[in-house]
Every structure is written in C-alpha cells, then in structure tokens.
Structure to design on (190 residues):
C-alpha cells in the first residue's frame, strides 16, 4: 500500500465528491455539496487543501483524506477522512492517517474519546483540550508546542456558500452537476 496525492483535476473532483458523499452519507441533504463547492472553489483554487488516498498494490483506492493547510502554511488538518466501502484492509482511513503522521505536520480533531483512541493508535501522540470538548491531536512533526501557537486551519464559509446558492441558481446547478458527474466518474485506480 502507498499514499497518493491526487493532483489530476478530474480525478481530484471525482474523489472529492466521493469523499463528501461518504462522510456525510448519501441522504445528507445539501451539506456534501456545500463542502464540495467550498473546497473545489476556494481551498483548491488557493492551493490550501490536498486530497490524498491510500491505495492497494493494484492502485485501487482504499481510503480518502482531505487535508487543509493552516494560516501559517506550516501544518495540515484532516478535514475529512473516509474508508471506502468493503475494503479487505482493516481501518484503511486510520492507516492513511498513520502514514501521513510519519511524514507531515498533521493535526486531527477528535470529538469523542473513541476518535481520540483511534487517532492515538494511528500515531497522533500529542493532545490538547480545545473548545467545546474537542481534543486536538498533533503528529510529532507538527511544529506547534501547544494551543497558544497553533495556527487556525483554513476553512470554507458554509453559510456564505449556501447563501450564494440561494442567490445564484446557475452556480448551484453547476456545482451540483460537477458533484454528480464526479460520483459517476470515481476512478477504479489512481
């Protein structure tokens, strides 16, 4: 198995659509489309996000992860992570995090003790208590020494995207078309 940075635009769009669908579920309303549009139209355009996959020996994707840079450009936060359905490998998403933790200044946010436990098993070894009970984990390669020097992660303004969709039906239709086409075009190999 190996980690692949998905740079090809068509593959990246398709993998982002699949990742959003997996994370939010197929009956999640507009949320997957809003995230898709924000990442595609803002973070990818500003080169502030990366899409990575864990692939098997035959280059079939097993897990996908979306990483966003922080404001300082020094660290990367796992925004979304998904195992792809029915894989022969146990917890490929956590295996992907484990590989990334060895190589990158990685940050993860855990909303539960179970998530924190799983990320610890994947090699995220420094933990801090954030707002709202969220635990923030950093890989050993992350330069921050505590919450005080941890730069804010770049994100998209979901409310603004929803507002844009309401005001511009053509924009909504374009992103919806890209999302649906991406789901249909998900590559069997990367």
């Amino acid at each position: 198995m190996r980690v692949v940075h998905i740079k090809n635009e068509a593959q990246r769009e398709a993998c982002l659509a699949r990742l959003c669908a997996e994370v939010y579920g197929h009956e999640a309303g507009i949320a997957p489309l809003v995230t898709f549009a924000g990442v595609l139209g803002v973070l990818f355009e500003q080169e502030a996000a990366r899409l990575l996959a864990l692939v098997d020996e035959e280059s079939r994707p097993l897990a996908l992860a979306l990483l966003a840079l922080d404001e300082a450009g020094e660290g990367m936060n796992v925004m979304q992570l998904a195992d792809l359905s029915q894989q022969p490998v146990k917890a490929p998403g956590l295996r992907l995090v484990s590989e990334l933790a060895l190589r990158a200044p990685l940050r993860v946010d855990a909303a539960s003790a179970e998530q924190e436990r799983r990320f610890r098993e994947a090699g995220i070894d420094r933990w801090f208590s954030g707002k709202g009970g969220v635990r923030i984990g950093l890989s050993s390669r992350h330069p921050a020494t505590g919450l005080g020097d941890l730069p804010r992660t770049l994100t998209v303004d979901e409310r603004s995207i929803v507002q844009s969709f309401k005001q511009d039906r053509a924009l909504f239709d374009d992103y919806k078309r890209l999302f649906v086409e991406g789901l249909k075009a998900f590559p069997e190999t990367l």
